[in-house]
């Protein structure tokens, strides 16, 4: 086929395709942001509740073993549930790229909130023995599978609606929603630990947060079903450009982009779970801080994180995604160990300031990464590329972070072991970002 024939064919197709959809108005954007917010909020409220109540869950499901080993087992269940996340990323990515972003997000929130609610009614070890932790693991794996499409899908959904020059700001609502879920979990945890005694907490108190997933999930599903799919996806459908095998195309044509996405996510995975999820347990078990104080300190730092994440999204629109992500890696390499060292012996006020500093560092990465990953892949495989790379990194480094941190402290006897683990993740992210191109300010690739 000659170049002239190819050009003529392309021109004919272009005439047959409707004009590009105009930018979404503010009312539609608000609905898009709300639909994206609620799903991630439910997911991370659940993860926060599991992490914050880890010591109680350990007693309920692993009462026959030593406390440290039981805590390891509890975090082990947390980590194993992440094994299915790359598989879920492929499945939800394929649905999102072939059938539609809205369809994938609607089904994922329905299954995710249902699985989370089941955790609330699981019988304990005292009631059914060894079957209890087995059921906990199964339900966590279902939850992990369904949740694996949330973060990537919500970000891609927003990115394909948002104006080019404010894409970083709008997509920053996704990490903000995860932090909001953690904050809600932290506040509820602090309240329950303050109001209930140990017996009440072990019996039924820890179950309450998981029961909230059902109504929240139904609200999110209702909002999503009221939206159209994204302009980018509808344009791709109109041009009959969607691929029947997005996963195959992804691995065949975009391996380099996947490697960059995976490496860049390593810092996000380890940093997020260590700083925002594992930290209350670390403060209680290693620093001797009380339950209520640990959760209060984390809640304050999360509130600061949410405010800073939007600032960082705006900054990334101006200085670029690559620059921001490189800066985040360098900052973590330089400051992580000193900040962890300062926790030992610090007052409550000092601990709060250190956690806010950690949160500020994390926003430099978290406020930029979702938009970068959305811009990295073309429309045909955007959901699949984002979901698989992001979930693979979180499966290997994110979900295992509390387990690895607890294990490293036990093996080395050093409270600084988690800090060095975070530094290693920052080195990986810095290395891959040196090979990445700048994506800010450009139209999404088709």
From TrEMBL:
Gene3D superfamilies: MFS general substrate transporter like domains. It is found in: Cell membrane. InterPro entries: H+-coupled_symporters, MFS, MFS_dom, MFS_trans_sf, Sugar_transporter_CS. One of its GO terms (molecular function) is symporter activity. It comes from the Bacteria. Keywords: Cell membrane, Membrane, Symport, Transmembrane, Transmembrane helix, Transport. This is MHS family proline/betaine transporter-like MFS transporter.
